[in-house]
Design a protein that fits this description.
With 241 residues, the chain is α+β, with helices and mostly antiparallel strands. The chain is built from 4 helices and 11 strands, in the order ββββββαβαββαββα. The strands form 3 sheets. Strands 3-4-5-7-6 form a 5-stranded mixed β-sheet. Strands 9-8-10-11 form a 4-stranded antiparallel β-sheet. A two-stranded antiparallel sheet has the order 1-2. Bound molecules: uridine-5'-diphosphate (UDP). The site of uridine-5'-diphosphate has 13 residues, from α2 and α3.
Amino acid sequence: MDKPAWLIKNGIRLDGRTPGDVRPMKMIAGFLDKADGSCYIECGKTKVVVGVHGPREVHPKHEMQDTKALVRCTYNMESFSVDSERRRPGLDRRSTEISKVSAQALEAAILVERFPKTAIDIFMEVIQADASTRVTALTAASVALADAGIPMKDMVTAVSFGKLYGENGEEVVAVDMDKPEDNFGLADCAVAYMPNIDQFTLMQMDGNLKIDEMRAGMAMAKKACREIYEMQKAAIKRRYE
Ligand code: UDP
């Protein structure tokens, strides 16, 4: 991918979005027959399938927790999801890290005390990657958990934001990074947020942001999450129509 001369010009990004716009999104709850809950999601060209099993018996037994459910996530980026030279099949350090932080981000919402000695397993398969895959997977995971009937305090909604350089040397904070923005932007952050109870459950950053840029980004991310939240609710409603 060649480095573009700029990523934003007169307030418009390379793909025509304004800084506050998320890419077009599509969500299908109950996408899979065999999982207890599932969701297929598209965010622009990023495509993820999430399947949830549980609450169910814990294997291996020694991982069982007496007072709450064990929430486990497996994030996997398929080798066909990116340009062939970029990704070897199988788990790597990046997917191990994303799996761990995703489990924590989702556990914060799940009423885990209601299901002691059980496991809730969440499988996230990235089938096409155009950046922001971890946040897209988290948004879908929440829908899949709701589809599985797992009670939650609120739904976790997730989005990325970052800083783009403009034609005239300006630096602009924007939400939902796509691939060129992720590659050539000045910073990018992943956040997960529970809109109803106004709590963040994940915050990760690459690059540098000044404190006022961080504040602006968090405010934009909250607004975007509220929009995505409506789409999550609509996807769950469609499932039962
Ligand atoms: N990517 C890739 N190969 C890899 C890892 C990432 O091509 O092994 C691409 C992919 O498009 C991904 C993007 O780089 O969506 C950004 O990856 P990052 O680690 O920032 O996570 P993400 O933004 O997907 O959550």
